[in-house]
Specification:
about 500 residues, Rossmann fold, Luciferase, domain 3, five-stranded antiparallel beta sheet, about 25% helix, about 25% strand
Protein backbone atom coordinates (compact mmCIF):
# COMPACT_ATOMS: atom_id res chain seq x y z
CA UNK A 1 0.00 0.00 0.00
CA UNK A 2 1.48 3.31 -1.12
CA UNK A 3 0.33 6.01 1.30
CA UNK A 4 0.38 9.74 0.68
CA UNK A 5 -0.82 12.72 2.71
CA UNK A 6 -4.50 13.58 2.69
CA UNK A 7 -3.65 16.77 0.85
CA UNK A 8 -1.78 14.88 -1.86
CA UNK A 9 -4.54 12.26 -2.18
CA UNK A 10 -7.14 14.97 -2.86
CA UNK A 11 -4.80 16.72 -5.29
CA UNK A 12 -4.43 13.47 -7.27
CA UNK A 13 -8.18 12.96 -7.45
CA UNK A 14 -8.61 16.59 -8.57
CA UNK A 15 -6.02 16.06 -11.29
CA UNK A 16 -7.49 12.72 -12.46
CA UNK A 17 -11.14 13.83 -12.45
CA UNK A 18 -11.31 17.60 -11.99
CA UNK A 19 -15.01 17.91 -12.86
CA UNK A 20 -16.27 15.00 -10.75
CA UNK A 21 -18.47 15.99 -7.82
CA UNK A 22 -16.63 15.69 -4.53
CA UNK A 23 -19.58 17.05 -2.52
CA UNK A 24 -23.28 17.49 -3.16
CA UNK A 25 -24.74 19.50 -0.31
CA UNK A 26 -28.53 19.21 -0.20
CA UNK A 27 -29.16 22.58 1.43
CA UNK A 28 -32.34 24.59 1.74
CA UNK A 29 -31.50 26.55 -1.42
CA UNK A 30 -31.02 23.41 -3.52
CA UNK A 31 -28.07 21.19 -4.39
CA UNK A 32 -24.67 22.86 -3.98
CA UNK A 33 -22.02 20.96 -5.93
CA UNK A 34 -18.28 21.19 -5.35
CA UNK A 35 -15.98 19.41 -7.81
CA UNK A 36 -12.68 17.87 -6.78
CA UNK A 37 -10.83 20.64 -8.64
CA UNK A 38 -12.85 23.37 -6.93
CA UNK A 39 -12.34 21.79 -3.49
CA UNK A 40 -8.62 21.57 -4.16
CA UNK A 41 -8.40 25.25 -5.12
CA UNK A 42 -10.60 26.35 -2.22
CA UNK A 43 -8.39 24.51 0.28
CA UNK A 44 -5.17 25.98 -1.14
CA UNK A 45 -6.39 29.56 -0.79
CA UNK A 46 -7.79 28.91 2.68
CA UNK A 47 -4.52 27.31 3.76
CA UNK A 48 -2.59 30.40 2.77
CA UNK A 49 -5.10 32.59 4.61
CA UNK A 50 -4.87 30.43 7.75
CA UNK A 51 -1.08 30.43 7.60
CA UNK A 52 -1.16 34.23 7.47
CA UNK A 53 -3.19 34.16 10.69
CA UNK A 54 -0.62 32.04 12.51
CA UNK A 55 -1.56 28.39 11.84
CA UNK A 56 1.48 26.16 11.56
CA UNK A 57 2.36 22.48 11.51
CA UNK A 58 1.39 20.64 14.69
CA UNK A 59 -1.38 23.06 15.72
CA UNK A 60 -4.96 22.18 16.51
CA UNK A 61 -7.50 24.40 14.72
CA UNK A 62 -11.04 24.55 16.11
CA UNK A 63 -13.84 24.31 13.52
CA UNK A 64 -17.30 25.47 14.63
CA UNK A 65 -18.90 25.11 11.20
CA UNK A 66 -22.23 23.45 10.35
CA UNK A 67 -22.55 20.75 7.71
CA UNK A 68 -21.67 22.22 4.33
CA UNK A 69 -19.04 22.53 1.65
CA UNK A 70 -17.19 25.12 3.76
CA UNK A 71 -16.45 22.48 6.42
CA UNK A 72 -14.56 20.26 3.95
CA UNK A 73 -12.52 23.11 2.50
CA UNK A 74 -11.46 24.18 5.99
CA UNK A 75 -10.42 20.65 7.02
CA UNK A 76 -8.37 20.13 3.91
CA UNK A 77 -6.70 23.54 4.31
CA UNK A 78 -5.71 22.69 7.89
CA UNK A 79 -4.21 19.34 6.87
CA UNK A 80 -2.27 21.01 4.06
CA UNK A 81 -0.51 23.14 6.68
CA UNK A 82 0.43 20.05 8.72
CA UNK A 83 -2.14 21.01 11.37
CA UNK A 84 -5.08 19.07 12.82
CA UNK A 85 -8.81 19.92 12.57
CA UNK A 86 -10.69 19.97 15.88
CA UNK A 87 -14.43 20.10 15.06
CA UNK A 88 -17.13 21.22 17.49
CA UNK A 89 -20.86 21.71 17.07
CA UNK A 90 -21.74 25.07 15.57
CA UNK A 91 -24.78 25.10 17.87
CA UNK A 92 -22.91 24.70 21.15
CA UNK A 93 -23.65 27.35 23.77
CA UNK A 94 -20.83 29.88 23.91
CA UNK A 95 -19.73 28.80 27.40
CA UNK A 96 -19.31 25.16 26.31
CA UNK A 97 -17.46 26.15 23.15
CA UNK A 98 -15.08 28.35 25.14
CA UNK A 99 -14.30 25.44 27.49
CA UNK A 100 -13.31 23.27 24.52
CA UNK A 101 -11.27 26.07 22.96
CA UNK A 102 -9.35 26.43 26.22
CA UNK A 103 -8.47 22.70 26.06
CA UNK A 104 -7.45 22.78 22.40
CA UNK A 105 -5.56 26.10 22.63
CA UNK A 106 -5.82 26.72 18.87
CA UNK A 107 -4.18 29.70 17.15
CA UNK A 108 -7.35 30.04 15.07
CA UNK A 109 -11.08 29.35 15.53
CA UNK A 110 -13.09 28.99 12.32
CA UNK A 111 -16.84 29.57 12.52
CA UNK A 112 -17.10 31.36 15.88
CA UNK A 113 -19.50 34.33 15.93
CA UNK A 114 -17.68 37.70 15.90
CA UNK A 115 -16.62 38.79 19.37
CA UNK A 116 -17.19 35.41 21.04
CA UNK A 117 -13.51 34.43 21.24
CA UNK A 118 -11.70 37.50 22.44
CA UNK A 119 -8.28 36.10 23.28
CA UNK A 120 -7.45 34.45 19.95
CA UNK A 121 -7.93 34.90 16.22
CA UNK A 122 -11.31 33.82 14.84
CA UNK A 123 -13.06 33.77 11.49
CA UNK A 124 -16.84 33.80 11.01
CA UNK A 125 -18.83 31.23 9.10
CA UNK A 126 -18.81 32.15 5.42
CA UNK A 127 -15.25 33.54 5.46
CA UNK A 128 -13.87 33.99 1.94
CA UNK A 129 -10.10 34.49 1.61
CA UNK A 130 -8.66 37.30 -0.47
CA UNK A 131 -8.83 36.60 -4.22
CA UNK A 132 -5.19 37.64 -4.43
CA UNK A 133 -4.12 34.49 -2.57
CA UNK A 134 -2.59 31.80 -4.78
CA UNK A 135 -4.64 28.68 -5.61
CA UNK A 136 -1.54 26.70 -6.65
CA UNK A 137 -0.47 23.60 -4.65
CA UNK A 138 1.33 24.08 -1.35
CA UNK A 139 4.40 22.13 -0.22
CA UNK A 140 3.23 18.66 0.82
CA UNK A 141 2.66 18.13 4.53
CA UNK A 142 1.52 15.11 6.56
CA UNK A 143 0.05 16.03 9.96
CA UNK A 144 1.06 13.62 12.71
CA UNK A 145 -2.44 13.75 14.23
CA UNK A 146 -5.33 13.24 11.85
CA UNK A 147 -8.15 14.73 13.96
CA UNK A 148 -9.11 15.85 17.46
CA UNK A 149 -12.77 15.13 18.20
CA UNK A 150 -14.65 16.31 21.28
CA UNK A 151 -16.72 14.34 23.74
CA UNK A 152 -18.64 15.18 26.86
CA UNK A 153 -18.77 11.52 27.84
CA UNK A 154 -20.99 10.36 30.68
CA UNK A 155 -19.76 13.14 33.00
CA UNK A 156 -20.66 16.04 30.73
CA UNK A 157 -17.17 17.55 31.13
CA UNK A 158 -15.59 18.21 27.74
CA UNK A 159 -12.51 16.37 26.60
CA UNK A 160 -10.54 16.11 23.38
CA UNK A 161 -9.79 12.75 21.79
CA UNK A 162 -6.68 13.36 19.69
CA UNK A 163 -6.06 10.57 17.20
CA UNK A 164 -2.39 9.70 16.91
CA UNK A 165 -2.56 8.35 13.35
CA UNK A 166 -1.04 10.57 10.66
CA UNK A 167 -3.30 12.12 8.03
CA UNK A 168 -2.26 9.80 5.23
CA UNK A 169 -3.96 7.13 3.13
CA UNK A 170 -3.75 5.01 -0.01
CA UNK A 171 -5.85 6.94 -2.56
CA UNK A 172 -6.41 3.73 -4.53
CA UNK A 173 -7.80 1.78 -1.56
CA UNK A 174 -11.48 1.01 -0.97
CA UNK A 175 -11.99 1.46 2.78
CA UNK A 176 -14.79 -0.03 4.83
CA UNK A 177 -16.51 -1.73 1.91
CA UNK A 178 -16.73 1.46 -0.13
CA UNK A 179 -16.13 1.54 -3.87
CA UNK A 180 -13.62 3.84 -5.53
CA UNK A 181 -15.59 6.69 -7.03
CA UNK A 182 -18.75 5.55 -5.23
CA UNK A 183 -21.46 7.69 -3.65
CA UNK A 184 -21.98 7.95 0.12
CA UNK A 185 -24.85 9.63 1.97
CA UNK A 186 -23.88 11.47 5.17
CA UNK A 187 -26.99 12.54 7.15
CA UNK A 188 -25.24 13.12 10.50
CA UNK A 189 -23.28 16.06 11.94
CA UNK A 190 -19.69 16.31 10.72
CA UNK A 191 -18.38 17.22 14.18
CA UNK A 192 -19.07 13.61 15.25
CA UNK A 193 -16.48 10.95 14.49
CA UNK A 194 -18.69 8.61 12.44
CA UNK A 195 -19.88 11.15 9.84
CA UNK A 196 -16.47 12.85 9.78
CA UNK A 197 -14.57 9.62 9.11
CA UNK A 198 -17.15 8.32 6.63
CA UNK A 199 -17.05 11.56 4.62
CA UNK A 200 -13.30 11.65 4.34
CA UNK A 201 -12.98 7.94 3.57
CA UNK A 202 -15.30 8.60 0.65
CA UNK A 203 -13.44 11.65 -0.64
CA UNK A 204 -10.01 10.10 -0.19
CA UNK A 205 -10.94 7.19 -2.47
CA UNK A 206 -12.32 9.55 -5.09
CA UNK A 207 -15.98 9.17 -4.17
CA UNK A 208 -18.83 11.65 -3.85
CA UNK A 209 -20.30 12.74 -0.50
CA UNK A 210 -24.02 13.53 -0.54
CA UNK A 211 -24.45 15.67 2.56
CA UNK A 212 -27.61 16.71 4.40
CA UNK A 213 -27.63 19.83 6.61
CA UNK A 214 -29.38 17.72 9.27
CA UNK A 215 -31.07 14.35 9.44
CA UNK A 216 -34.54 14.04 7.93
CA UNK A 217 -35.96 10.54 7.42
CA UNK A 218 -37.78 11.00 4.13
CA UNK A 219 -35.07 13.25 2.66
CA UNK A 220 -32.60 10.42 3.29
CA UNK A 221 -34.65 8.00 1.23
CA UNK A 222 -35.20 10.58 -1.50
CA UNK A 223 -31.46 11.32 -1.60
CA UNK A 224 -30.57 7.63 -1.90
CA UNK A 225 -32.87 7.36 -4.91
CA UNK A 226 -31.97 10.66 -6.60
CA UNK A 227 -28.18 10.34 -6.21
CA UNK A 228 -27.88 6.55 -6.53
CA UNK A 229 -26.26 6.31 -3.11
CA UNK A 230 -24.30 3.11 -2.45
CA UNK A 231 -23.15 3.51 1.18
CA UNK A 232 -24.74 5.22 4.17
CA UNK A 233 -23.99 5.55 7.88
CA UNK A 234 -26.96 5.69 10.26
CA UNK A 235 -27.28 5.66 14.03
CA UNK A 236 -30.15 3.60 15.50
CA UNK A 237 -32.24 6.74 16.11
CA UNK A 238 -32.13 7.53 12.40
CA UNK A 239 -33.04 3.98 11.45
CA UNK A 240 -35.96 4.06 13.87
CA UNK A 241 -37.31 7.34 12.47
CA UNK A 242 -37.06 6.02 8.92
CA UNK A 243 -38.85 2.84 9.97
CA UNK A 244 -41.57 4.93 11.62
CA UNK A 245 -42.45 6.49 8.25
CA UNK A 246 -45.65 5.11 6.74
CA UNK A 247 -44.93 1.99 4.69
CA UNK A 248 -46.18 3.68 1.52
CA UNK A 249 -43.61 6.48 2.04
CA UNK A 250 -40.72 4.05 2.59
CA UNK A 251 -41.70 1.90 -0.35
CA UNK A 252 -42.13 4.71 -2.87
CA UNK A 253 -38.36 5.27 -3.01
CA UNK A 254 -36.01 3.19 -5.16
CA UNK A 255 -33.18 1.99 -2.88
CA UNK A 256 -31.74 -0.54 -5.32
CA UNK A 257 -28.41 1.34 -5.57
CA UNK A 258 -27.78 0.86 -1.84
CA UNK A 259 -25.05 -1.70 -1.10
CA UNK A 260 -24.23 -0.96 2.55
CA UNK A 261 -26.21 0.42 5.48
CA UNK A 262 -23.76 0.78 8.37
CA UNK A 263 -25.21 1.32 11.84
CA UNK A 264 -23.04 2.64 14.66
CA UNK A 265 -23.07 5.09 17.56
CA UNK A 266 -25.15 2.89 19.88
CA UNK A 267 -26.31 -0.74 19.93
CA UNK A 268 -29.21 -1.31 17.57
CA UNK A 269 -32.31 -2.79 19.25
CA UNK A 270 -33.09 -6.31 18.07
CA UNK A 271 -36.59 -5.45 16.85
CA UNK A 272 -35.23 -2.60 14.74
CA UNK A 273 -32.41 -4.69 13.25
CA UNK A 274 -34.87 -7.44 12.30
CA UNK A 275 -37.16 -4.88 10.68
CA UNK A 276 -34.38 -3.49 8.48
CA UNK A 277 -33.05 -6.93 7.59
CA UNK A 278 -36.56 -7.94 6.55
CA UNK A 279 -36.90 -4.74 4.50
CA UNK A 280 -33.55 -4.54 2.69
CA UNK A 281 -32.03 -7.99 3.20
CA UNK A 282 -29.26 -9.11 5.58
CA UNK A 283 -26.44 -8.68 3.08
CA UNK A 284 -26.90 -4.89 3.07
CA UNK A 285 -27.19 -4.33 6.83
CA UNK A 286 -24.02 -3.98 8.91
CA UNK A 287 -23.20 -2.79 12.42
CA UNK A 288 -19.98 -1.50 13.95
CA UNK A 289 -18.98 -0.75 17.54
CA UNK A 290 -16.01 1.22 18.79
CA UNK A 291 -15.28 4.57 20.39
CA UNK A 292 -13.67 7.63 18.86
CA UNK A 293 -10.54 6.49 20.73
CA UNK A 294 -10.28 3.58 18.23
CA UNK A 295 -8.73 1.35 20.91
CA UNK A 296 -10.86 -1.49 19.59
CA UNK A 297 -13.73 -2.12 17.26
CA UNK A 298 -16.11 -4.84 16.19
CA UNK A 299 -18.21 -5.35 13.11
CA UNK A 300 -21.02 -7.68 12.11
CA UNK A 301 -23.00 -8.28 8.93
CA UNK A 302 -26.72 -8.83 8.87
CA UNK A 303 -26.17 -12.46 7.91
CA UNK A 304 -23.90 -13.02 10.92
CA UNK A 305 -26.34 -11.15 13.14
CA UNK A 306 -29.14 -13.57 12.32
CA UNK A 307 -26.94 -16.34 13.75
CA UNK A 308 -25.92 -14.15 16.74
CA UNK A 309 -28.93 -11.83 17.30
CA UNK A 310 -28.17 -8.83 19.46
CA UNK A 311 -24.41 -8.97 18.90
CA UNK A 312 -22.28 -6.07 17.68
CA UNK A 313 -19.75 -8.49 16.18
CA UNK A 314 -16.20 -9.64 16.71
CA UNK A 315 -13.02 -7.54 16.92
CA UNK A 316 -11.50 -6.49 13.61
CA UNK A 317 -8.00 -5.61 12.43
CA UNK A 318 -6.02 -7.27 15.21
CA UNK A 319 -7.93 -5.49 17.98
CA UNK A 320 -8.65 -7.42 21.19
CA UNK A 321 -11.45 -7.38 23.76
CA UNK A 322 -11.71 -8.78 27.29
CA UNK A 323 -14.64 -8.84 29.70
CA UNK A 324 -13.57 -8.22 33.31
CA UNK A 325 -15.54 -8.39 36.53
CA UNK A 326 -15.34 -5.81 39.34
CA UNK A 327 -12.25 -7.52 40.75
CA UNK A 328 -10.45 -7.38 37.41
CA UNK A 329 -10.83 -11.09 36.67
CA UNK A 330 -11.73 -12.28 33.18
CA UNK A 331 -15.37 -13.33 32.80
CA UNK A 332 -16.28 -16.60 31.09
CA UNK A 333 -18.48 -16.51 27.97
CA UNK A 334 -22.03 -15.39 28.71
CA UNK A 335 -21.11 -13.51 31.90
CA UNK A 336 -21.70 -9.77 32.13
CA UNK A 337 -18.75 -7.54 32.91
CA UNK A 338 -16.99 -4.40 31.79
CA UNK A 339 -15.60 -4.32 28.24
CA UNK A 340 -11.83 -3.70 28.08
CA UNK A 341 -9.93 -3.15 24.84
CA UNK A 342 -6.45 -3.24 23.36
CA UNK A 343 -5.41 -1.92 19.92
CA UNK A 344 -2.84 -3.83 17.82
CA UNK A 345 -0.11 -1.30 18.63
CA UNK A 346 -0.65 -1.47 22.38
CA UNK A 347 -1.87 1.11 24.86
CA UNK A 348 -1.52 4.70 23.77
CA UNK A 349 -0.96 3.85 20.10
CA UNK A 350 -4.26 5.24 18.77
CA UNK A 351 -5.11 8.39 20.75
CA UNK A 352 -4.54 10.57 23.76
CA UNK A 353 -6.98 12.61 25.85
CA UNK A 354 -6.78 16.30 26.60
CA UNK A 355 -8.86 17.11 29.67
CA UNK A 356 -9.39 13.54 30.92
CA UNK A 357 -7.58 10.39 31.99
CA UNK A 358 -8.14 6.97 30.49
CA UNK A 359 -9.51 4.16 32.69
CA UNK A 360 -7.17 1.21 32.38
CA UNK A 361 -5.88 -1.90 34.10
CA UNK A 362 -2.31 -2.12 35.35
CA UNK A 363 -1.32 -4.00 32.20
CA UNK A 364 -2.77 -1.33 29.88
CA UNK A 365 -6.22 -2.60 28.89
CA UNK A 366 -8.60 0.37 28.60
CA UNK A 367 -12.36 0.69 28.96
CA UNK A 368 -14.93 3.20 27.74
CA UNK A 369 -17.26 2.14 30.55
CA UNK A 370 -19.46 -0.18 28.51
CA UNK A 371 -20.89 -3.35 30.02
CA UNK A 372 -21.28 -6.51 27.96
CA UNK A 373 -20.40 -10.14 27.43
CA UNK A 374 -19.07 -12.43 24.72
CA UNK A 375 -20.50 -15.73 23.53
CA UNK A 376 -18.59 -18.94 22.89
CA UNK A 377 -17.73 -17.78 19.35
CA UNK A 378 -16.25 -14.48 20.54
CA UNK A 379 -19.16 -12.24 19.49
CA UNK A 380 -19.65 -9.20 21.71
CA UNK A 381 -23.01 -8.16 23.18
CA UNK A 382 -23.49 -4.79 24.91
CA UNK A 383 -25.72 -4.05 27.89
CA UNK A 384 -25.21 -0.35 28.69
CA UNK A 385 -22.78 2.17 30.11
CA UNK A 386 -21.70 1.34 33.65
CA UNK A 387 -22.35 4.91 34.75
CA UNK A 388 -25.94 4.77 33.45
CA UNK A 389 -26.93 1.54 35.19
CA UNK A 390 -29.86 1.86 37.61
CA UNK A 391 -29.90 -0.16 40.84
CA UNK A 392 -33.50 -0.41 42.01
CA UNK A 393 -34.57 -2.65 44.86
CA UNK A 394 -31.24 -4.45 44.57
CA UNK A 395 -31.72 -5.27 40.88
CA UNK A 396 -29.56 -3.92 38.07
CA UNK A 397 -31.54 -2.29 35.25
CA UNK A 398 -29.91 -1.12 32.02
CA UNK A 399 -31.62 1.98 30.57
CA UNK A 400 -30.90 1.01 26.96
CA UNK A 401 -33.00 -2.15 27.34
CA UNK A 402 -36.00 -0.20 28.68
CA UNK A 403 -35.58 2.50 26.03
CA UNK A 404 -35.51 -0.11 23.26
CA UNK A 405 -38.81 -1.52 24.53
CA UNK A 406 -40.37 1.95 24.87
CA UNK A 407 -39.28 2.96 21.39
CA UNK A 408 -41.22 0.05 19.89
CA UNK A 409 -44.46 1.86 20.78
CA UNK A 410 -45.75 3.61 17.63
CA UNK A 411 -46.35 6.89 19.48
CA UNK A 412 -42.80 7.10 20.90
CA UNK A 413 -40.25 8.94 18.80
CA UNK A 414 -37.46 8.70 21.37
CA UNK A 415 -36.99 8.03 25.07
CA UNK A 416 -34.45 8.29 27.86
CA UNK A 417 -34.53 6.27 31.06
CA UNK A 418 -32.78 7.43 34.23
CA UNK A 419 -32.67 6.53 37.92
CA UNK A 420 -34.00 9.02 40.47
CA UNK A 421 -33.59 8.77 44.27
CA UNK A 422 -36.20 6.68 46.10
CA UNK A 423 -36.39 6.14 49.86
CA UNK A 424 -37.67 2.59 49.46
CA UNK A 425 -35.94 1.27 46.33
CA UNK A 426 -32.73 3.30 46.37
CA UNK A 427 -33.47 4.40 42.81
CA UNK A 428 -36.69 4.35 40.87
CA UNK A 429 -36.86 4.03 37.11
CA UNK A 430 -38.03 7.23 35.46
CA UNK A 431 -38.85 7.40 31.74
CA UNK A 432 -38.68 10.63 29.74
CA UNK A 433 -40.74 10.18 26.58
CA UNK A 434 -40.79 12.21 23.37
CA UNK A 435 -44.16 11.20 21.88
CA UNK A 436 -45.61 12.11 18.50
CA UNK A 437 -49.19 11.82 19.79
CA UNK A 438 -50.89 11.69 23.20
CA UNK A 439 -50.19 8.48 25.12
CA UNK A 440 -50.96 7.61 28.74
CA UNK A 441 -48.78 6.12 31.47
CA UNK A 442 -51.14 3.15 31.62
CA UNK A 443 -50.82 2.50 27.90
CA UNK A 444 -47.03 2.56 28.08
CA UNK A 445 -46.98 0.31 31.13
CA UNK A 446 -49.20 -2.20 29.33
CA UNK A 447 -46.91 -2.04 26.30
CA UNK A 448 -43.80 -2.59 28.47
CA UNK A 449 -45.36 -5.38 30.51
CA UNK A 450 -45.41 -7.50 27.34
CA UNK A 451 -41.67 -6.95 26.81
CA UNK A 452 -39.99 -6.53 30.22
CA UNK A 453 -40.12 -8.09 33.64
CA UNK A 454 -42.07 -6.01 36.14
CA UNK A 455 -38.98 -4.68 37.96
CA UNK A 456 -37.80 -2.99 34.74
CA UNK A 457 -41.04 -1.11 34.05
CA UNK A 458 -40.64 2.60 34.94
CA UNK A 459 -42.37 3.83 38.09
CA UNK A 460 -42.85 7.32 36.64
CA UNK A 461 -43.18 8.92 33.22
CA UNK A 462 -42.51 12.40 31.92
CA UNK A 463 -43.49 13.72 28.51
CA UNK A 464 -41.48 16.22 26.48
CA UNK A 465 -42.01 17.80 23.07
CA UNK A 466 -38.40 17.91 21.88
CA UNK A 467 -36.07 15.12 20.69
CA UNK A 468 -34.05 13.52 23.48
CA UNK A 469 -31.14 12.53 21.27
CA UNK A 470 -28.92 14.78 19.21
CA UNK A 471 -28.34 14.50 15.47
CA UNK A 472 -25.79 11.74 16.09
CA UNK A 473 -28.23 9.69 18.17
CA UNK A 474 -26.51 10.50 21.47
CA UNK A 475 -28.33 11.03 24.76
CA UNK A 476 -26.62 12.40 27.87
CA UNK A 477 -28.52 10.66 30.64
CA UNK A 478 -26.38 12.19 33.39
CA UNK A 479 -27.40 15.71 32.35
CA UNK A 480 -31.08 14.71 32.20
CA UNK A 481 -30.83 13.23 35.68
CA UNK A 482 -29.06 16.26 37.16
CA UNK A 483 -31.68 18.60 35.71
CA UNK A 484 -34.46 16.62 37.39
CA UNK A 485 -32.63 16.45 40.69
CA UNK A 486 -32.52 20.24 40.68
CA UNK A 487 -36.31 20.41 40.19
CA UNK A 488 -37.61 17.05 41.48
CA UNK A 489 -41.25 18.02 41.48
CA UNK A 490 -41.17 18.61 37.73
CA UNK A 491 -39.55 15.23 37.11
CA UNK A 492 -42.59 13.31 38.29
CA UNK A 493 -45.41 13.02 35.81
Amino acid sequence: MATVSYGEALRRHAEAAPGRDAIRFLGEAGVERESFAALDRRANRLARAYAGLGVKSGDLVTLALPNGVEFFGACLAIWRLGATPQPVSSRLPAIERRAIIELADPPLVVGAPPGEVEDRVSLPEGFVPSPTLDEAPLPDATPGRVRAMTSGGSTGRPKLIVERAPAECDPDAEPNGMRRGGVTLVPGPLYHAGPFITSWQTLLCGGTVVLLPRFDPERCLAAIEAHRVEWVLFVPTMMQRIWRLPAEVRDRHDLSSLRTVMCTGAPSPEWLKRAWIGWLGPERIHEAYGGTERIAGTQISGTEWLAHPGSVGRPTGGRRIRILDEEGKECPPGTLGEVYMMPPGGRGSTYHYVGAEARATEDGWETLGDLGWVDEDGYLYLADRKTDMIVTGGANVYPAEVEAALDQHPAVRSSAVIGLPDDDLGQRIHAIVDATEPVSDAELREHLAERLVRTKVPRSFEYVAEPLRDDAGKVRRSALREARLERPAEGDA
